[in-house]
C-alpha cells in the first residue's frame, strides 16, 4: 500500500480535538500507511495527543494556529476570516501537495467555498457536488448527490451530477452499469417540478447512463437504485431525515447511562431479544458508519464530516477519504468524463 498523508482540520465540528484526536488514534492502529498533518490550537491538542499516546508520533505533524472559523457565521464572513484558520491551512496543504486529502467537520459553507477557491476543479465541471454513500437495508450502499453544496442548480448541472455519480458508483461500489434515479415526490412521469421533468426526459435518452426514472424519499434505503440525483437543498433535507430516523430507532435499543430502573432495562432487553434481527440491520445503517461527504468534481479529495460526529464517526470519515485516494477517484472521474465528452 502506498503511503497516504491526510490534512485534518482538528478544530472543526462541535467537539473539535475531543473527537478528532481519538479518531486519529484509531486510524493509526487500523492503517499502517497513514500519516497526518494536524492544524489547530496546540494548547488544546497536545494534552489529547498525550492522553492517546500520540505525542511526538512519527506519523503526526502538528501545525499550530489559534484561528478557527465559527460554525454559525455567514459564508461570506467565514471566507473573509479564513486566513490562517485550521480549515484553510488544511486545504492549502492539499493544494500544495503536502497531503493527498483533507477532512473537516467545520462550517460546511466555508469548507465548500474554500475548497472551490483553492483546489482546481476538474475540467468542464461547473459546480462540485457534495456526495456520500448512504446505507441500504440489504447491507449495500447507494451514492447520493448533491447533499448541500448547491441549493439551486441548472438542468445541465443536474446532468453533470448524474455523470459524476455514475462514475463514482462504478469505482466505489464496483458496479459496471449503475442504476441512476432522480429524487422526486412521485415516480409518475408528470410528478414534480418542471426542471425535474425536463432533466428526466434528457437522462432517458442518454445511452451512456443507466437511468431508470424517479425515486421517492421513502425508498432511498431500499437499494432500488445505485445513484440518487438531486439539488443540494432537497438532498440535505432528505439525508438529515434519514440520519435522524436511524438514530432515533437505534436509541430505542440502547441502554442509557446511569439508568438503574429495572423495569425500563427489562423492556429494553426484551426489545433487543424480540427484534434482534432488525436491530442488527439498524446497526448496518447507523449514520456513524457512513459519516463523510466528498466534494465530487474537484481535482483533490476534500471530505466533510458531520459537525456533530463522535470519534467513531469521524474515523469513518477518515476511512472514506482513504478509500477515495486509494481508488484515485478524482482522476477516474476525469478520465470517465473525458471519454464521454469525446464520444
From TrEMBL:
Source taxon at top rank: Bacteria
An MF annotation (GO) of this entry: phosphate:acyl-[acyl carrier protein] acyltransferase activity
GO BP terms: fatty acid biosynthetic process; phospholipid biosynthetic process
Enzyme nomenclature, EC number: 2.3.1.274
Alphabetized UniProt keyword annotations: Acyltransferase, Cytoplasm, Lipid biosynthesis, Lipid metabolism, Phospholipid biosynthesis, Phospholipid metabolism, Transferase
CC per GO annotation: cytoplasm
Catalytically driven reaction(s): a fatty acyl-[ACP] + phosphate = an acyl phosphate + holo-[ACP]
Cellular compartments annotated: Cytoplasm
Pathway recorded for this protein: Lipid metabolism; phospholipid metabolism
Function description: Catalyzes the reversible formation of acyl-phosphate (acyl-PO(4)) from acyl-[acyl-carrier-protein] (acyl-ACP). This enzyme utilizes acyl-ACP as fatty acyl donor, but not acyl-CoA.
Subunit structure and binding partners: Homodimer. Probably interacts with PlsY.
Family: Belongs to the PlsX family.
Protein name stated in the entry: Phosphate acyltransferase
The encoding gene: plsX
